[in-house]
Structures are given as C-alpha cells and as structure tokens.
Design goal:
483 residues, alpha+beta, FAD/NAD(P)-binding domain, protoporphyrinogen ix oxidase, domain 3, Polyamine Oxidase, Chain A, domain 2, 3 domains, five-stranded parallel β-sheet, 17 helices, 22 strands, 22% strand, globular
Length: 483
C-alpha cells in the first residue's frame, strides 16, 4: 500500500528486482489521497513553480541521486543559485550573514563569527574550547540535541547556530530530540576524532581525497520542473512495469487470513477487500498503528509513541519592484530563542532557476513546528498577514503579494525523541514476527527524501527475498503510503 515517495520507491525497487530475477509480480500501490506524492506537491501557475512540501533533497546521501539516474531525471537536476548564495539568520533584531566555515554545523573557521555579530565574544571563546573538550564517557544515557551541542560548543552556540537548522529539518524541539537518532555522525566524530571540529576537518579531508562525479552538485539539489516530476516519473515507470496504481483507495484495516487463503486481508473504505501475500505500510507511524492493531497490538502501541509535529509552508509571489533590493542570499533561518512564528524563509526564485518569471520574486515561508502548532488554527488570510508582518519586521519586505498558496501539514514531521532508535528496533522485531509484513517511511531511519528512498529500497529487497524464496503461491503484494 502506498503513494508517497517511500511507497512508490519501494514498489519501483520491487518491480526492478522482479524483472532482474525474471519473476512474475502482482503489485498494487494504494493511496488514500486523490493524487500520488504524499508531501511532495508541485503546483505550476502563472509561470510560477510552487512547492507545497519539500523543495529539494540532500546530495551527500546517494539514494535520491541514484534513483534519478534510473528514472532518467539526472539531466533535470539543478543546483542552488551560486550568485549571492550566502545564508542569513535573524539574530538580535536584524538579519545577519550566517557564519561561513560551518561544515555540517561543526565550525572549523571562527573568524567569520566575529564579523557576523551572531554571537558574543564570550560565546565564540567557548566554542573555540571545543577542540579540547573531552569525549563524554559511554554511560548508556541518551543525550538530547540541546544537551549534546551545549556540552560541546556552549549554550549560546547551540541557541544561535545549531537550533535553527535543527528546526528547519525536524520542525522539532532540540530539548526533546535524540542526538543519537537525528545526527549520529556527530557522536561518531566525538568518539572517533575527539570532537566536532576535529571530526569535521577529518571528514572534509576524506571527501576531498575521494571526490568524484557528484562534486559538481551543490549540497542540495532540485528538479527543473519541481520535485513533483519525481513522482510523475515514478508513476509512469511503475505503470509501464505493470504495477497497479490506485488513488482514493483508503485502507481501513489490515488483518490476518484472507477468505481465499491469502496471508493478509485489507479492508478498504466502501467495503472492498483485497488479499495479499505481503503488505508494506509506508504510512505515518500513527496510521500504521491503527492499521496493525488487530495484527500486532504491541507494535501498534510502540508506533503510537512516535510523536509528530505540524507545519505550514506558504509561498508568496511579488512583482520585483515591490521588494527590489530587499532579498539577500537565499533566505534566512530564525532561532527559537527569538520567539517568532516563522521558522525560516527562502527566496525560491533566487535559490532555484526557473521558479518565477522575469520581473517576479517567489518567497517561501516555513511556519509552525513543535510548540507552535497553534498557527495551523489560523485561516489563510490570518496566516498570510502573520507571515507578511514577520517578513516586514525581519527583512523589510512590505509589498503585497499577488499570489499566495498555503499548505498545512498536520502531524507531518516525525519526531526522533530520546529512545527512538530502541523503539524502532522493537517495532521492527515485532513486525518481523509476521512474515510478509513490512514498515517503511520517514518515521524510522531518517525523514529526508534520500533516507526514505534508501529505507524503501532496503524494504523491497527484504520483501523480494521473502517472496521468491518462499513456498507460498504467488499472490499479490500491497503497498500503502501517505508519506
């Protein structure tokens, strides 16, 4: 069952494996919404390319780039704009250039910090001490992101430099999020190299020594026509492979033992039932919990314990004269310590080529997140006015947009709080007790597009091993997803 990136990628990998093995596959992808894609939504209007969900993906994780190759989308990949590409942060009452030399949130050049004004001299001095801060002894006690980065870099560095990027990725509260589950590489740097700065330098040297074809890619990339093209091409390829694709097919429950001998029975809205030899759930954890309650109550209870945050994306298009000279860099982030409703803003038409016609600017705002879910209760006009006030106060943008799109994403961002990795291990063990039943998606091993694709492909490989090494009759596979 599935129609978001995780479900479609799992179906694609399964169809690819079936073709390589010469096996017959009956696979159905079920999507409860009217269209495939989940949170990947691209809208083309008036020459604008508006992204309702994610607008790019990370290139340092290879799964998404590799899938683009297979889908023949590589020629459509675009880098972030190189002109005036600095990042900004709203700090201490105004926009400031985000300090350069921060390699994956670990500072290796402190000089730009002095020039930026983002931090006090005392805070910078505390950061510099990180070079000599010893690794924390292994105690088995899990640290939050706030505790880990405050211990290594100091509280001010955490609040001013680290937290806004955490919020931009997870829409979460770093006082709740697990360091081990969200950024395990930084804990590895601490123990393998003795600290973040040392680990960052070692990683940079290693990447420089092994740089190859992907070196021409910026840290984030997108598609010329928007990320919706990813979904369109996946659907096309799956249709060509004979995979059945059904939108508006809402699954209500999964149970054991079909009436005609199948291991699993799926109950759909409207009374329809499907039987399947195997089922892949690529739905949010809380949806999977409801679907699995009759099959495995213990796993369903654990799935229910994965919390979610709600977010809003808002895109506003302006005539350039309205905001001429106000846009610097690619946008800005807002630390939680500033106590604003806006998490970040991106100048989409400056960051990505072709997002707006000449003479127009497209701005994308990111709002909500953990502790700020009340913003979703505002209507569109209230939200628009709120975002405009924030942009005016922080960036001096006072014009009136001629086009606005608001996308609310309730319970859309899984929160990897302390205990997440152990919880996922227990869920995986519980589900593994039921042959042919699998979970994949953003709730488990990473919530970025490359993470979801990697997990979906691993799931498909495990499923194919089960299908084509089992003694069952060849029955359909169902994949359901709302990610």
């Amino acid at each position: 069952m599935g129609g978001g990136i995780a479900g479609l990628a799992a179906a694609f990998a399964l169809a690819e494996r079936a073709g390589a093995l010469g096996e017959l596959l009956h696979c159905t992808v079920l999507e409860g919404q009217p269209a495939f894609g989940g949170k990947i939504v691209t809208h083309h209007i008036h020459g604008l390319v508006v992204e309702g969900g994610p607008d790019s993906f990370l290139t340092t994780k290879p799964a998404a780039l590799a899938l683009c190759d297979k889908l023949e989308l590589t020629p459509q990949l675009i880098n972030t704009g190189q002109g005036n590409g600095s990042a900004l942060t709203y700090s201490k009452g105004r926009l400031r250039e985000f300090p350069q030399g921060l390699i994956a949130m670990a500072p290796t050049h402190l000089g730009s910090l002095f020039r930026s004004g983002v931090m006090s001299w005392a805070g910078i001095a505390r950061m510099a001490v990180e070079w000599w801060v010893p690794a924390r002894p292994a105690t088995g006690e899990e640290e939050t992101l706030a505790a880990f980065f405050s211990r290594r870099l100091g509280a001010e560095a955490f609040h001013r430099l680290i937290e806004p990027f955490v919020a931009g990725i997870y829409a979460g509260d770093a006082n709740e999020l697990s360091a081990a589950a969200t950024f395990p590489q930084f804990l590895e740097w601490e123990h393998a190299h003795g600290g973040l700065m040392k680990g960052a330098l070692a990683t940079r040297r290693a990447r420089a020594a092994h740089r190859h074809g992907s070196a021409s890619r910026t840290l984030f990339t997108s598609l010329r026509g928007g990320l919706g093209d990813f979904i369109t091409r996946l659907v096309e390829k799956l249709s060509e492979a004979g995979v059945s694709l059904r939108c508006g097919a809402n699954v209500l429950a999964v149970s054991m033992g079909g009436r005609h001998g199948g291991p699993y029975r799926l109950e759909l809205a409207g009374g329809e039932e499907l039987e399947a030899e195997a089922v892949v759930l690529a739905t949010p954890a809380y949806v999977s919990a409801e679907l699995l309650r009759a099959v495995d109550r213990e796993s369903a209870t654990l799935l229910d314990r994965i919390p979610y945050a709600s977010t809003i994306t808002m895109s506003m298009a302006y005539a350039d004269p309205e905001i001429a000279g106000r846009l610097r860099g690619h946008g800005f982030v807002v630390p939680r310590i500033e106590n604003r409703g806006l998490i970040a803003a991106t100048w989409s038409s400056m960051k990505w080529a072709g997002r707006a016609p000449a003479g127009q600017s497209l701005i994308r705002c990111y709002l909500g997140g953990r502790g700020r879910e009340h913003l979703l209760e505002m209507d569109d006009d209230e939200l628009t006015n709120h975002a405009r006030r924030e942009l005016d106060m922080m960036a001096g943008i006072r014009g009136r947009p001629f086009h606005v799109e608001v996308y609310r994403w309730p319970r859309a961002m899984p929160q990897y709080v302390r205990g997440h990795r152990d919880r996922v291990r227990r869920i995986r063990r519980g589900v593994a007790r039921h042959p042919g039943l699998y979970l994949t998606g953003a709730a488990y091993e990473g919530l970025g597009i490359p993470d979801c694709i990697r997990d979906a492909e691993n799931t498909a490989h495990a499923l194919s091993d089960f299908l084509w090494s089992s003694t069952f009759d060849r029955r359909p596979v169902a994949i359901e997803d709302a990610e």
